[in-house]
């Protein structure tokens, strides 16, 4: 295999990307490919640290209805977020809790699929940064993350192979069953995409 490192990228590096990285490790072992490092990262991991209330409000707006339906936020809190008032104070604790929940769910799914041995959750998500050279292969999960990864590498000398793995739904508010279905789709797509390079 010509690539010496593979990076699987989603938004938060706590659900889809680690699952794809796990699938990569398993396929590499099955194919007896050695000497390839597999990582996961997220294009939005550091976003909450730097975002203004207005930026954060825009970023979470697609999730507000689900947050209301699941009781994560009250109608008054959603109004506050839409108005851009105290967004970080309201949203960051929920993001932390949901990130922990999503990571636990993903680990449970990998266990149920017999993939725990290939899982390498680092304990905290990593931000996607330009550190893959020409010997790097990047699988971006989601059209938005594909655009972000290309933007990250656009102004650099490093030119890894960047491929869109698929536009899989973010399982942030999903049930275990829905998350497992997304995970199975990601695993199948990862195996299919990686097989082209082995």
Would you kindly provide a written description of the structure presented here, covering whatever features stand out?
With 198 residues, the chain is an alpha/beta fold. It has a domain at 5-45 and 100-195: Response regulator (Rossmann fold, 3-Layer(aba) Sandwich). 50% of the residues lie in helices and 12% in strands. The chain has helices spanning 16-30, 47-50, 53-60, 64-69, 75-82, 87-112, 143-154, 176-195, and strands at residues 5-10, 37-42, 136-141, 161-166. It has a 4-stranded parallel sheet, sandwiched between helices. Strand 3, helix 7 and strand 4 (161-166) form a beta-alpha-beta unit. Helix 6 crosses helix 8 (176-195). 34% of the residues are buried. The mean pLDDT is 88.
């Amino acid at each position: 295999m010509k690539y010496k490192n593979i990076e699987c990228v989603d938004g938060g590096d706590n659900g889809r990307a680690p699952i794809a990285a796990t699938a990569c490790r398993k396929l590499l072992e099955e194919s007896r490919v050695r000497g390839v490092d597999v990582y996961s990262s997220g294009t939005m991991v550091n976003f909450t640290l730097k975002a203004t209330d207005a930026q954060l409000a825009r970023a979470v707006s697609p999730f507000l209805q689900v947050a209301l339906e699941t009781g994560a936020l009250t109608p008054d809190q959603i109004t506050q977020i839409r108005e851009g008032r105290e967004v970080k104070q309201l949203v960051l604790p929920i993001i932390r809790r949901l990130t922990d929940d999503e990571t636990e769910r993903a680990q449970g799914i990998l266990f149920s699929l017999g993939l725990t041995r290939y899982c390498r959750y680092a304990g905290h998500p990593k931000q996607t940064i330009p550190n893959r050279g020409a010997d790097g292969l990047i699988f971006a999960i989601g059209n938005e993350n594909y655009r972000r990864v290309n933007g990250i590498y656009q102004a650099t000398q490093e030119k890894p192979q960047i491929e869109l793995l698929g536009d899989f739904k973010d399982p942030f508010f999903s049930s275990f069953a829905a998350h497992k279905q997304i995970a199975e789709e990601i695993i199948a797509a990862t195996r299919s995409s990686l097989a082209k390079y082995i």
